[in-house]
TrEMBL record, chains A, B:
It comes from the Bacteria. NCBIfam families: FMN_nitrolo (TIGR03860). This is Monooxygenase. Belongs to the NtaA/SnaA/DszA monooxygenase family. It comes from Microbacterium suwonense. InterPro entries: Diverse_substr_monoxygenases, Luciferase-like_dom, Luciferase-like_sf, NTA_MOA. One of its GO terms (molecular function) is monooxygenase activity. Keywords: Flavoprotein, FMN, Monooxygenase, Oxidoreductase. The keyword Protein transport does not apply.
Amino acid sequence: MTHERTPRQIKFGAILTGTGGPGDQLRWLDPEIPGDASVDIDWYIEYARLAEEAKFDLVFIVDSQFITPHSPPHYLNRLEPLTLLSALAVSTSRIGLVGTATTSYNSPYNLARRFASLDLISRGRAGWNVVTSGDAGTAGNYSRDEHFDYPTRYRRAAEHIEVSQGLWDSYEDDAFPRDRETKVFLDPAKLHELNHDGEFFQVVGPLNIQRSPQGQPVIFQAGDSNDGRDLGGRYADGIFTFTPSIADGQAFAADIRSRAAAVGRNPDHVLILPGARIVVGDTDDDAREIERAQHELSNSFEITLAELGRPFGWHDFSGYDLDAPFPDVLHLAEHSFRTQAEAIVAAARKDDLTLRQVVERRAALHPSPFVGSAKTVADTIQEWFEAGAFDGLNVFVSHPAQFRRFVAEVIPILQERGLHRSEYEGTTLREHLGLPFPANRYTVSATRVEQTANAASLSTAH
Amino acid sequence: MTHERTPRQIKFGAILTGTGGPGDQLRWLDPEIPGDASVDIDWYIEYARLAEEAKFDLVFIVDSQFITPHSPPHYLNRLEPLTLLSALAVSTSRIGLVGTATTSYNSPYNLARRFASLDLISRGRAGWNVVTSGDAGTAGNYSRDEHFDYPTRYRRAAEHIEVSQGLWDSYEDDAFPRDRETKVFLDPAKLHELNHDGEFFQVVGPLNIQRSPQGQPVIFQAGDSNDGRDLGGRYADGIFTFTPSIADGQAFAADIRSRAAAVGRNPDHVLILPGARIVVGDTDDDAREIERAQHELSNSFEITLAELGRPFGWHDFSGYDLDAPFPDVLHLAEHSFRTQAEAIVAAARKDDLTLRQVVERRAALHPSPFVGSAKTVADTIQEWFEAGAFDGLNVFVSHPAQFRRFVAEVIPILQERGLHRSEYEGTTLREHLGLPFPANRYTVSATRVEQTANAASLSTAH
């Protein structure tokens, strides 16, 4: 099964994290970044507007819901993503607004309603990055003794998405005549109960909110494990991942697209947008020097040691003998980020590493492929994109000066080459991403009934 | 126990409902109101800004989460309150932002986090109107066979508030040194777990967000039953109610304040803000004529019959014999708005009413006390306020022209009389309402420890 890829442009997301992100926990040491950026709405508005001026497709907000006094800065203090994005919705006019929310600790009715509200407030620009929560400690904040195990989390996520998408179709698009002459506000035949009765959720519906100009919020997915990929292939419009090389990107894209095709979807309707650290300098050497200086500022053995604990349920490694072999802790990852934990343990076993060596390897500078002069960065992005390593990039906006350089120097080159839009063509996130408008399932059914009737009458005519 | 009332001004809230509200379901027939006002963020922004120009204390968003195809317009299609208020937060700068959220179908960690985010985004202007959900059908949207019964709902509400307030204090106000010299972001001694283990919730904490400039969101409460009043007296800073007469208002205020005093609170720190329908005309007669014309436009036997079903679990009365005695349906209110239902049944029994008569009485024009020329309305508000019938009014913004007249004609009179502010004195909702800043419980404890130590050393000195 082959699919003609239509001529495309590169999609761009801006990951707004405030005071730094994973692997970049000391970014707040830079005097250019307000120490409270992660809870400062003005910081988010400023960079969302800058991304919009650069005609980005979307901003992207990550999330987590479990901290300890030893959590790195990025996790400690942050705005809840949908509240944050709603403020951005009325501070921007075109850019998409993608927020992370967990299916493990939300009710579908509540969450679907909040995304539908964001979608209406933004006039069709909302996206939901579906996660299942890898921090096992989150359970303790939600009256549960234990976090859901891995397969349960993904079954629950799938059902959660199904219920949400069902609720989002509660009203057909022409459900409200609002006819002042006849005094008819609603056509009750176009309001539908869901009556979902599943393994995790029983939801009668209907949802008390109409659809937005893009029909339904766009679905993103961010888990890289096998079940995560299945979930992405089945439901996601966009995938957030990490792509260390062109070959990795090609393999990942092929894998996701084959999973999408296997469930009958058009694989071109799944866009892959890995996260990217981009550094622009006057020359390639200058850029590598900036990258090195940034790494030096943000490098910390202690924080890397603390972050290493995350895939193992935020396990505290600080009491271990640093020079003993990497400890036998894989069982701690059971309900956490198991795929990540397995990769860490496998690498340690393979090279017979101590805990110190594991931390030092993680803390070392891992050069980004997207570092160089503006032209070099543009060339590299173009090369990877044209090789099919990704459909676009989710750019980490951790360093304001660097983001401004990317927008001012690299984006114009890509625009000149026809690889990035110079103006928004549409108004909705779905339009930006080139995704089809999802017809309401109940309206679709009516059309299908018609088609079936036509087919029947055709066969009668023979 | 008597309490000196400090000289006060009248507090004003604006209830923004979009297309009308309870008892005013056909308001959307007015061509001045967009038919989709209840999901149009621009409508909300316009009236929030108008209320802010008039130096109102707050806007107030009501809510519900259960509809059927026969629900009146007001319930059918609405934005989720916190998403809505976050958009208003960055569209205004001073006015308070109070949103309704149910304790029956939210997790405290999620909800506390969302209100804390709104509080930070608005720089200290968030308020939570605590409700327990009277629509029994809501259970079906949240995977429950049955709605919580009345006493359970209120026990759960109390615990939900306690947990939320505990989570909101997770960080002491000086928890983040964010010292670039020493690279210290957090003082871990100032981050506190809650470790709540109660009847309904087990929440370890801490919450992953700092406190706002007002310390914690303001608590409102809107249930008028006995348990609702207890909850309000114990926890609420503001009470949303209905006050048909000065005497009723005085009795209600005395009741709430005695409940507050009984649990050791300063009764002056509970403000009573009934909802008010205000109609301003050129003369008193003109205003009564506007009120009559408004009622005529919005009056509907069918919709009143449908709304009558709400306290009885949205019972469908349409199949009943309208001219038979009011049916025996009180048992249907078991898990719904029982107090309201009891009042309806008692009135019907007392006067031996048929179902038609009950509906006709409800549908009839109930003149508002706040109808007249601007001077008359100002006089009446002043009289009720000075008699202690309320601390302020929550004004229904159902008719835009009327709200504009109130703001343009009545507010200046009250300002001239010193009964309403001409400028905001503070920046937070708590400051607007004259409520004290809530010290962080852990910082308070430290102070208490100090005081105890001082007391001990004093007694040693004796």
